[in-house]
Design a protein that fits this description.
Layout (H helix, E strand, L loop, with lengths): L3 H9 L2 E11 L9 E7 L22 E3 H9 L4 E5 L9 H9 L3 E6 L11 E4 L10 H5 L2 E6 L4 H10 L6 E6 L4 H14 L3 E3 L3 H4 L4
Parallel strand pairs: 2-4, 4-5, 5-6, 6-7, 7-8, 8-9
Antiparallel strand pairs: 1-2, 1-3
Helix pairs in contact: 2-3
Length: 210
């Protein structure tokens, strides 16, 4: 269990339940192919049945880590930092992003948007989920909308989400990995008929890198 003092610092955002951190290639969306340092924060109650990092859901299994330590590690590797989860907006992201910005690092987030947007971000990837929809403000701030396609009904959801997202947001449809052979042809056909959308693939998995 987290100690009370650690819980207070996690709630304030000066410590975060760090699951893992690693330097790799961004595999998805607009910045695919870009070298980036990933910070994966524990804690998520969105509960996607196809989530491939379910071990991130329980924040108590990941050690509260001072953001100074996280930032120090990140600055060694890359000027592009991607904060992901879990659901990073479970926590206050302002202290972490302020510290990253103080090092002149670019801050990206991958989020479902299920909680209030916090932090200073150069790039916001919004990946909404049906069972816990984004809070309103993030629709106006998102730079890319990435909808995961598990079945044909997700195209309807994608259009509903695109309709409430800002006009400058780049729209992506991405096959859920476990059913990619089934849904990728559907996505290709859909994008060809609706060219406002783009195809996003998990290229890091094809490249066999983290």
């Amino acid at each position: 269990m987290l100690k009370t003092t650690s819980l207070d610092k996690v709630d304030a955002g000066t410590m975060l339940p760090l699951m893992e951190e690693f330097y790799t290639i961004q595999g998805e969306g607009f910045h695919k192919g870009t070298a980036a340092y990933f910070i994966r924060v524990g804690g998520c109650d969105v509960g996607c049945h196809w989530c491939d990092v379910k071990e991130s859901w329980n924040a108590e299994t990941h050690p509260p880590t001072a953001i100074e330590h996280i930032v120090e590690n990140a600055a060694k590797y890359s000027d592009t930092i991607v904060v992901t989860g879990g659901e990073p907006l479970t926590w206050n992201m302002l202290p972490l992003t302020q510290a990253l910005k103080a090092k002149n690092l670019k801050t990206h987030i991958e989020t479902s948007g299920a909680y209030t947007l916090s932090g200073l971000w150069d790039w916001i990837c919004l990946s909404p989920k049906k069972n816990k929809l984004p809070e309103g403000k993030i629709y106006d701030e998102a730079h890319e909308l990435k909808v995961i396609v598990y079945n044909k009904h997700d195209f309807i959801f994608a259009e509903e989400q695109a309709a409430v997202t800002n006009e400058n947001c780049i729209l992506y449809l991405q096959p859920e990995w476990s059913v990619r052979e089934k849904v990728t042809p559907l996505i290709v056909d859909y994008v060809m008929q609706n060219p406002k959308w783009k195809v996003s693939l998990q290229t890091h998995k094809y490249l066999n890198i983290p």
